[in-house]
């Protein structure tokens, strides 16, 4: 079941200034975020194909392909199962945060109500979840 979640969050890039919050979606306990937001922050390029409803994320020779509602991703030509497939929500492709971050070389560290996304080069994006408000199924 896909649930739209209005998480009251503050995103802050440690050492790089504040980043505006983006809408969050939760599905089966997984946080889905707009693919372009997380990929570009991690230094990757995103190309969308409307014909195949898929996104190609590239970074320093790595290639990740994700398709809407498909539970498999391709990372450098190898299939990898996803716990939650990418979803189109309000016209934006949402992807599992942990999967994409780790596939692009970042580490995820949970510290209570904080989630740190540590990208290569030690810059950290800190996600603070203040409260979760479920608004129903889209």
Summarize the SSE layout with pairings.
Layout: E1 2-14, E2 17-19, E3 24-27, E4 30-34, H1 35-41, E5 45-49, E6 54-59, E7 62-67, E8 72-75, E9 78-81, E10 87-89, E11 92-96, H2 97-103, E12 107-111, E13 114-118, E14 124-136
Antiparallel strand pairs: 1-2, 1-3, 1-14, 3-4, 4-11, 5-6, 6-7, 7-8, 8-9, 10-11, 12-13, 13-14
Task: Give a verbal description of the structure.
10% of the residues lie in helices and 59% in strands. With 138 residues, it is mainly beta. The protein has a single domain (2-131), classed as Copper amine oxidase-like, N-terminal domain (Copper Amine Oxidase, Chain A, domain 1). Strands 1, 2, 3, 4, 10, 11, 12, 13 and 14 form a nine-stranded antiparallel sheet that branches. It has a five-stranded antiparallel sheet with strand order 5-6-7-8-9, with helices on one face. The longest helix is centred in the first third of the chain and has 7 residues, at 35-41. The chain is globular, with a radius of gyration of 14 Å. Residues 1-22 and 130-138 have low confidence and may be disordered.
Descriptors:
138 residues, mainly beta, Copper Amine Oxidase, Chain A, domain 1, 9-stranded antiparallel sheet, 5-stranded antiparallel sheet, 2 helices, 14 strands, 10% helix, 59% strand, disordered N terminus
């Amino acid at each position: 079941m896909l649930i739209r979640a209005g998480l009251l969050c503050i995103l802050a890039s440690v050492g790089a200034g504040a980043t505006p919050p983006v809408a969050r979606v939760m599905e089966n306990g997984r946080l889905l975020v707009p693919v372009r937001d997380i990929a570009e922050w991690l230094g990757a390029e995103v190309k969308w194909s409307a014909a195949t409803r898929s996104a190609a994320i590239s970074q320093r020779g790595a290639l990740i392909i994700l398709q809407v509602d498909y539970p498999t991703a391709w990372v450098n030509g190898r299939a990898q199962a996803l716990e939650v497939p990418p979803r189109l929500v309000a016209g934006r492709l949402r992807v599992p945060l942990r999967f994409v971050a780790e596939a692009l070389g970042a580490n995820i560290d949970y510290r209570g109500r904080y989630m740190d996304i540590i990208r290569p080069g030690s810059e950290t994006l800190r996600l603070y979840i203040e409260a979760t408000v479920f608004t129903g199924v889209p």
